[in-house]
Every structure is written in C-alpha cells, then in structure tokens.
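Researcher: Final request for today, and then I'll write up notes for the group meeting. The sequence and the SMILES for S-adenosylmethionine follow.
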Amino acid sequence: MSPPVCSCAEQVRKLTQQASVMRREIKNLRQQMDGAIRAHKKQMSSLQSMLTDCKHEDKLQSVSKSPSEIKQLLEQGRIQTVPIGYISSCFAVKNGTPRQPTICSSSRASLKIEPSVFNNPEHSLVGLEQYSHIWIIFLFHKNGQMNYKAKVKPPRLNGQRVGVYSTRSPHRPNALGLTLAKLEGITGDTLHLSGIDIIAGTPVLDIKPYIPDYDSPKTRRDDTNSEYRQTSPFTDSQMPQVMDLDEEPNISGTSSEPSSVLRVCPAGPSDFSQSERSGSSDVTDVLAEVKNYVKQQQLFTESPKDKQTDSPERNSLSTNHLSSSSLKFGCEDYSTIAAWVRAPPVSNLDVRFTANAEKELKEFVSCNSTDRTKPKFQFLKGPEEAVAAIKGILSADPRSVYRRTRCQDRLFFFTLDTADITCWFGDGFAEVVRVKPMQS
Ligand SMILES: C[S@@+](CC[C@H](N)C(=O)[O-])C[C@H]1O[C@@H](n2cnc3c(N)ncnc32)[C@H](O)[C@@H]1O
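Model: Predicted protein-S-adenosylmethionine complex:
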C-alpha cells in the first residue's frame, strides 16, 4: 500500500528545512574556519615580527638589559657577538680547505655586510678600498662540539703536542679565527677576497685593514724615519738589514739558540751577506764570513753602554740572553717564530694529475663565462687557477695526522669551488685522479 500523498509532501518539507539548517551550519562553520585562519595568520605575523625584534635584541645586547647591565657585561668581556656577514667561499667543507691563506693565493671568497648590522652597510666600507689586505676575525662555526684542549697536535708537527696558544688550531676556547686576506675589490656592500682559508657560511665577526706599520714588526724596520732608526745605537752601515719573512733565515738552531725557536734576524752589515750574494763557495772564506757575522751579531747585542765596559758579567749576560731570549741577540724588535712553522717535520708533496683528471678539469669554465653547456666555476677564473689552487692545497698535505698514518691508502675527497676532487697519496706525492662537477 502506497503512503498517503500528504505525508510525502510533509516529509519533503521537513527534509528541505533540515537541508537549509545544515546549509546555514556549514556557512557558519566556514565563517568560523575563515576567522580561525585569519587569527592564525595574524598570530604568525606577530610571531615573525617578534622574531625580528629578537634578532634586533641580539644586535643591541637585548633590549631587556639596562645600559648599566650592558656596560657591566662589556667590562666583564661577556658581550653577545653579532656576525657582520657570512663568507661565500670556494671551499664548501673543511676537508681540503687550506690550513693558512698563504697556501692557496687564488682561493676566492666574498663577504656581504649584513643589512641588519648597519642601515646602509656600504657606508661601513667607505675607505677600505685603499687597502690591499684585511684581517678577518671569524667563528669556526663548524667545529662541531665546542671541545678544546690545552695541548694540540698540529698536522704540520706530525703528531707532536704543543700548547694550543702556540698554534692556529680551530679548536680553542671561543673558537675565533684570524685570517689575513687579499682585498680584490669592493662592490657596494660586498667585499671580494682571495687567499682565504675559510669555508662557506662562516660567520664573520669583524674585519680590519691590514696596516704593515702597525701589524708587522719587520716592516716597521723598513721605515727610514722610524723612531727605531732615530734612536738606534747603530750607524747607518751597521743597521740590521731587513729580512723578508719568506726567505730562509740566516740562523736556524745554532748551538746558542733554543732548538725550537728560529729567529728571523737581520743579516747584518757584514760581508757575509755580500759574498753570499756573489756566490763564494770557498770554505775558508765562508768561515771568515761566519766569524765576521757572529762578531756583528755580538755588536748588535751590545748597547752603547755595554760597548764601553768589557766586564765578565757583560759577557755572561750576553751569552745567557742568546740562549734564552732575543733581547740581547739584537733582534728585540724583530719577530721570532717557532722553527717547526718554517721547517716542519712534514715535507711538501709533489702534486700530479692523471691525464683523465686533467681532461676533466679542462672542461670547467671561468666564473665569468656565459657558456651554459659546461661546468662553471663560481669563484675561480678557469682551469689554470684551479690547477694552482689544487697544487697549493695538496702540496701542503691537507690530511690529518690520523689519516696520514692510519689510512694512507684511502682515497681523499675534497671540494674546490664547484668541483669535487678525488686524489690519493703516495710516498712524497699526491695524485689527482678525478675532477667532477660538484653534486648539488
Ligand atoms: C688552521 S685554521 C686557521 C684559520 C686562521 N688562518 C687562523 O689562524 O685562525 C684553518 C682551517 O680551519 C678550518 N675551517 C675553516 N673555516 C672553518 C669554520 N667556519 N669552522 C670550522 N673550521 C673551519 C679549515 O679546515 C681550515 O683548513
């Protein structure tokens, strides 16, 4: 039996009513959701601005601190540092990064001054273009855990320990690094650098111009108008000669010298340096020159007052100083360095390329090239510069002492600019076997 027509119509009416109620509810829910999304977005943007404020607070030593608290923290040496920029460099990782900037002069980098530090970052660089080199003070941000020890084993000392402060080890309290880089140029807020030993992403805390007159004791001596020159007890012909720090020193570990200290001393006005230049090889001549040289060195140890008195005390004092300090050696204003830095027990390696590696490297094009079909360097100017950089890096033996002694036959991988490089080490040499575009 079919239901009565009126009850059907009733049902349709009820259903229509329910549908419209549901529609209204859906509309309400939608409105509520829209409201929630709007509120969420608002919350997000206020969180974001709080974050920006926090960064500002970092910069300003936190606004929550009073000026006197900030002053106190500064006096205690507990300031909060703010990176002035981050290095973009041709070294992506620590492996294969030169241990010092001089190892690889073509290693390039750039540093953009953060707009959060100065409103007009480029203003902070005005005048810096007049300098050829700058000091970069940075954080060894990839040290991993901040652990450090009082004694370390520099790779160039091949396992021997020395105090951390007599080395350039990255693992030190405060993890601060110091590099002297060549300033190639400045464009706006960006410095273009070369000769760096810093990996990409490194936070830079400060930069300063390199001023040889202030920063290099050797160069101060170069200045003929220097105070030293004016007050020197020497006559012009007795003035110590300036020695280029890149040259081999005249004296290394003589019997009167502590064996671990190598003095970079003036050659002196003796014939010694003269005939060395003229290439005399006669043994007696050489001995005479050595004697003469020693005499000159003694002369340098004497103050004018000393010269007048020839007491036994004077002689013994002089000898003591020769073995314990540079003061009486006549080099008091000259720099001295640890012997192992100049003549490390680890020797430099020959670097060679397999024919295949050479071919692969030649595929790369300069950072300025418009060729899109070939792998392109980001910093280097072409394969020649890359060869020089690779030779610099490998000849200094970039392996840790552990790798050098325990994993001699393992392949060594490193990245230079946009190239992944594979090499191996043999007795006295390193051979590059593969150069591939970096895997991104
Ligand atoms: C021996 S340190 C010397 C650095 C600087 N010239 C100095 O004397 O303070 C250079 C080495 O530090 C490592 N290095 C460079 N940048 C780094 C960073 N941001 N974090 C950790 N290690 C870094 C690389 O392995 C590089 O070979």
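Model: Confidence is low (pLDDT under 50) at residues 219-282, 296-329. The radius of gyration is 34 Å.
Researcher: Thanks, that's everything.
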